[in-house]
Design goal:
Blueprint (H helix, E strand, L loop, with lengths): L6 H13 L2 H8 L3 H15 L4 E4 L2 E4 L1 H27 L5 E7 L1 H18 L3 E7 L2 H9 L5 E5 L7 E16 L10 E2 H4 L4 E3 L5 H12 L6 E4 L3 H9 L5 E4 H9 L3 E7 L4 E9 L6 H20 L4 E3 L3
Parallel strand pairs: 3-4, 3-5, 7-11, 8-9
Antiparallel strand pairs: 1-2, 5-12, 6-10, 6-11, 6-12, 6-13
Helix pairs in contact: 1-2, 1-3, 1-4, 5-10, 5-11
Length: about 325
């Protein structure tokens, strides 16, 4: 190399590679285009290779540029994580955390977690995303989410998972449901009622279908809806029933708007985990959020608001 390169040059290169254009990258970085071009040229001279091929609509990376883009992205992630960790030693946690939640958890405990995190770590930018379990796992593998509460993944090699809890599932009905006074309900009896459930690619739907097949009964699907709020509204109106963890509907049950009855013979349970990218260092901010999540789950399990067993560390 004729001279060492620096992180400023690396960031300039990555921005151009992402934008596919020096013009757009200069606007994004808020610098003059000639200055940006000079940074990239100095980087090319340091490495002794061409990083871009110019064409009429912009630029594309060469083979060397593609390799550098992959390695440099990881390098900047390491630098950011290191800077956050060093800052945390002085008592200040900084950075950004993109937090993923399945809808049932978002509905029952997201507000408490977000409030406590903002109070304790005001200099961390917290972004919350809610999506189905499979979607969250995919986004976490792609490093678009830093930390996600999701169900135990199957055949996901690029996730680091921390067991959180095993939750019990309940038969959820309207206030006037015939099972309102029952202490429990068998799966066979629950399957006699018309159901509103998410699509057949949803983890909960797959579990219910498998359980129904084991007792040799069909699922009487009245409506297929992926939006939790709409599912609950149909149940509240007495138009259908569903199967969910109690924590999701606890407030509505206490208000007398819905009923919840534990399913037995067999009991239905599922495991929740905290997932992070396996090949990416966990930032201090993400670790602090993980601790708050574990504490929130412990509180809800201990109080009975979330029937189940905590299985985390």
């Amino acid at each position: 190399m004729s001279q060492p390169f620096n992180l400023h040059q690396i960031n300039s290169f990555l921005t151009v590679a992402k934008c596919g254009s020096f013009t757009r990258a200069a606007i994004l970085l808020n610098i003059a285009q000639p200055a940006l071009s000079r940074q990239v040229r100095l980087l090319e001279e340091s490495l002794g290779v061409e990083l871009f091929v110019r064409h009429g609509r912009g630029v594309v990376t060469t083979a060397a540029g593609q390799l550098l883009q992959t390695r440099a992205t990881h390098l900047l992630e390491e630098v950011e994580a290191t800077a956050s960790a060093v800052s945390a030693i002085a008592g200040e946690v900084t950075g950004q955390v993109i937090f993923g939640l399945i809808p049932s958890v978002a509905h029952s405990m997201a507000g408490d977690i977000v409030q406590r995190f903002r109070e304790n770590f005001p200099r961390v930018s917290l972004v919350v995303e809610s999506a189905m379990s499979g979607t969250l796992q995919e986004l976490t593998e792609q490093k678009k989410i830093n930390l996600a509460i999701t169900y135990e993944p199957y055949q996901r090699r690029n996730l680091r998972c921390t067991p959180l809890m095993e939750e019990r599932l309940y038969f959820i009905g309207p206030a006037q449901c015939p099972t309102a006074s029952a202490a429990e309900i068998s799966l066979q009896d629950a399957l006699q009622f018309p159901m509103v459930l998410p699509g057949n690619n949803h983890g909960l739907r797959i579990m219910i279908e498998k359980a129904a097949a084991q007792v040799r009964l069909p699922v009487l699907l009245d409506a297929e809806i992926n939006t939790l709020a709409l599912q609950l509204d149909l149940v509240r109106r007495g138009l259908a029933h569903t199967i969910l963890p109690l924590a999701t509907v606890l407030r509505s049950v206490k208000r007398g708007e819905m009923t919840a009855c534990p399913i037995v013979s067999p009991a239905l349970t599922r495991k929740l985990v905290l997932a992070t990218p396996a090949d990416r260092p966990t930032s201090v901010a993400s670790m602090r959020l993980q601790q708050l999540v574990e504490q929130a789950v412990h509180r809800q399990v201990a109080s009975g608001e979330w029937p189940g067993a905590q299985i985390g560390r």
